[in-house]
Amino acid sequence: TAKREGRNCFHYFTNSMQETANTRMRLANDLRHAVKNGELLVHYQPIIDLSTGYIQKAEALVRWQHPKSGIINPDKFIPIAEETGLIVEIGDWIFHQAATQVKYCRATYNSNFQISINKSPFQFKVDSSRCHSWFEHLKKLGLPGESIVVEITESSMMEATNNIYDYLLKLRDNGMQVALDDFGTGYSSLAYLKKFDIDYIKIDKSFVQSLSSDSDDLTLCEAMVVMAHKLNLRVIAEGIETWDQFELLKSIECDFGQGYLFSKPIPANELNQLFAENTAFIPLKKSVGE
Ligand code: C2E
Ligand code: MG
Ligand code: MG
Ligand code: MG
Question: Main localization of the protein (predicted)?
């Protein structure tokens, strides 16, 4: 009977593997038309200057409004876009969206405003030959390179060292800035901070979310901020959900923050609305007994 169970398990396993493969194949096919059909959306999550409470930057986060399946998050389809090579077209499209939005916000609300875009390791190689066209596009719009920040994850640094070195050099030669995303979660090597010119580290939300309950995480965050500042880097904390987390990060002089406390990633028109209201996010004084 052990043999029979084993065989059933095997069948079950292959069936579900088959299903997963089918789903991926379907998504890969659908994704081919997604850009053309206008199904991709870029949402923007505001990044707040923690000392003033005002919006200084935003992170561009892509979503796919699938006609049948609803909203699909990037974790699900970016890997498929990479496998199929569609990431090149999608990456260019996201860049153009972000450039249009950053131009509008700089002209209308905040002349230092920046938008950051995420890049996966697969993109480093292709982008090296494409980023020239982005610089041209920025020039055409009258935007300086520094209006765009490129986010790369710490762990992706390890995967493509040669490509990434040239890539980052090109970006920085043209004034763009670079942020090290999900800092603290990869096989961190502090040597990367020395070897690559970087402008920001982004403290991963896993450190931020246990800040008030875990004093070790506060110590780690503080150490990251002190180290970054000594290296002349600025720090962005991600995943801020409570006023407590906000105040603790402010107290250790973390420069910037983003998270659901301030805003979820939102469509461009809602970001403009937030800007137009011009309200600062400032910790509210807690009333006695709260
Ligand atoms: P990431 O760059 O680390 O982005 C931060 C993620 O945290 C986003 O998830 C965001 O919605 C989420 N987040 C923000 N604030 C909070 C909060 O307060 N609490 C919690 N629990 N989550 C928060 P999202 O949009 O699903 O993106 C997931 C990942 O997909 C991103 O992680 C990034 O690595 C990748 N990604 C997103 N857009 C793109 C893109 O245009 N290109 C590439 N290559 N990757 C992208
Ligand atoms: Mg990011
Ligand atoms: Mg991150
Ligand atoms: Mg992430």
Answer: membrane
Cα gap 106→270, rounded to integer Å: 16
For 284, which DSSP code?
P
Break the chain down into helix, strand, coil percent, rounded to 5.
Answer: 55, 20, 30
> At 124, phi and psi to the nearest 5?
-55, -45
Question: Ligand 1: which of 40, 42, 61, 245 to mutate, most ligand atoms within 8 Å of CB?
Answer: 61
Average pLDDT along the chain, 290 residues, taken 10 residues at a time: 49 68 87 92 97 97 95 94 91 96 98 96 80 94 98 78 80 94 80 84 94 88 95 96 95 97 97 93 58
ipTM beyond cut 0.95: yes
Distance 269 CA to ligand 3 centre (A): 23
Question: What does residue 63 show for φ and ψ, rounded to 5 degrees?
Answer: -130, 155
**Ligand 3 centroid to 202 CA: how many Å?**
7
Those residues whose C-beta lies under 8 Å from the C-beta of residue 195, and which sit 6 or more positions away, are 165
> Can you tell me which atom of ligand 1 is nearest the CA of 202?
3
Q: Would you state the structure tokens that stand for residue 277, as one six-digit string?
A: 């209201």
Helical pair 215-230 and 243-251, crossing angle rounded to 10 deg = 40
Q: Among all ligands shown, which has an atom nearest to the Cα of 202?
A: 3
- CA dist., res. 166 & res. 125, Å (int): 9
Tokens of 40: 């991709």
Whose CA is closest to atom 34 on ligand 1?
118
With beta carbons less than 8 A apart as the criterion, state whether 248 and 218 touch: yes
Q: How far is CA 15 from CA 28, 77, 137, in A?
A: 20, 22, 48
Q: Which pair of structure tokens corresponds to residue 264?
A: 């979820």
Q: Give, using CA atoms, the residue closest to atom 20 of ligand 1.
A: 239
Q: Which residues line ligand 1 (CB under 6 A)?
A: 45, 61-62, 73-75, 78, 94, 118-120, 151, 181-182, 205, 238-241, 258-260, 265
